[in-house]
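yo

u said u wanted the structure for the complex thing, so here. seqs first:
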Amino acid sequence: MEKSSKSALVIGGGIAGIQAALDLADMGIHVDMVEKKPSIGGRMAQLDKTFPTNDCSICILAPKLSECYRHPNITLHAYSEVQKVEGTAGNFTVEILKRARYVKESECINCGLCAEKCPMRVEDEFDRELRKRRAIYMYYLQGVPAIMTIDKEKCLWFTKNACRICEKACEKEAIDFDQQDQTITLNNVGSIVVATGYNLIEDFEKEALNIYGYGKFRNVVTALEFERMECASGPQGGHIKRFSDGVTPKKIAFLQCIGSRSDRYKKYCSSICCMYTTKEAMIAYEHDNSLESYVFYIDMRAGGKGFQSFLRRGASDYNIDYIKSKIAQIDIDKDENPIIVYEDYDDGKIKQLKVDLVVLATCIIPPEGIEDMAKLLGIELNDYNFIKTTPFIPVETSKNGIFTCGCVHEPMDIPRSVTEASGAAARAAEVIRGG
Ligand SMILES: Cc1cc2nc3c(=O)[nH]c(=O)nc-3n(C[C@H](O)[C@H](O)[C@H](O)COP(=O)(O)OP(=O)(O)OC[C@H]3O[C@@H](n4cnc5c(N)ncnc54)[C@H](O)[C@@H]3O)c2cc1C
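structre next:
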């Protein structure tokens, strides 16, 4: 296809941003993709398997990561953020801040020798702080670009003027402590796609999880932590173990709507939890088929193709008991086994269930910095701080030439994020091609 003189900007390198970038690039439009983390992939990279097929998440994602990285029409700016946007549809000027990694991108071969030698242990954000990484690190095992990054806040050289062990370990001489942040200006940007995804309520309002004992009881975890626990490349090597005693749980309770559909926290439904909870219970059963799972729900929202039969399969083939209920409180016994006190909506009785582990399906919230991003782009947000979209064209923002897709405008699953990404890419291409 004929190459366009105008380019597109995609902000956010999760599955939605990746798909939008690939579609635009395949149309012959040059794309600059800006991702604030050291590698692209977003939340999908953190998942173990994905409903509705329960395929390995990274196996589906990895080919797209490398396609995005290698595509001749895509320039990837990872570890970067957009800091200024001027102009109008068809002709934006964009300023990007590219943060210093203190590692030369052209030299690093991701051999990991530097991290092996680094003496600093730091909470690993990608693994939801369930394990430690080093101050020089790869964001995650299969991350793209596969380049190490020095965490300036934790590195002994930057904090105490000592160490530099990584520099000696690096045979490629890729460490560069003098590297500086860079500002990159993009002219002639025709359209912009915003795909900055989501955070979870525990990232900013941990108190919403207090009544479930999260942070107090070691055997209460969040659903995203549980994804990492199930994952073969995760902190437990794919062998699900309780944090109190390292024992494999035989009874797991999955609690729905944590922080969502709540008058106190977020009024909206997170939309994907009913499905991913059943998936997590199914996968845990595949790890150990003596497992009993209990899903405590308000009502089941499984509005997608094949979703209802997915839940039925959970009950019939994976030993999942769905309990329509309201949770009153969670306590623990002397062995740290969580005890759930709940009202069973079927008979109105107050009951108790002792389990080995509790998994909380926590509310999806707009991504960190969304208000600044909205100001920068001149777009509106809705009542819940997600990007406001046009009712009948959900990829259109309040500003001409700026489109959106994925969870940044409302919680949604991967197939819908991908579909929307293609929609946003088509609209963004229209602006550029003048069609
Ligand atoms: C526990 C759990 C399990 C799930 N399981 C499934 C499942 O089995 N199947 C399914 O279909 N869906 C599942 N989902 C939903 C799935 O995670 C989302 O549908 C998907 O990740 C949405 O992709 P996205 O690109 O919109 O957002 P994200 O994956 O959040 O990606 C957004 C990207 O934008 C980047 N970013 C953020 N802010 C900025 C900024 N200011 N500048 C530049 N970059 C920025 C982020 O770093 C990130 O890389 C699950 C979700 C959870 C919480």
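The pocket of flavin-adenine dinucleotide is lined by residues 11-17, 34-37, 42-44, 47, 50-51, 81, 195-198, 223-224, 227, 272, 276, 279, 367, 369, 373, 406-407, 412-415, 417 (CB under 6 Å). The longest strand covers residues 182-194.
cya
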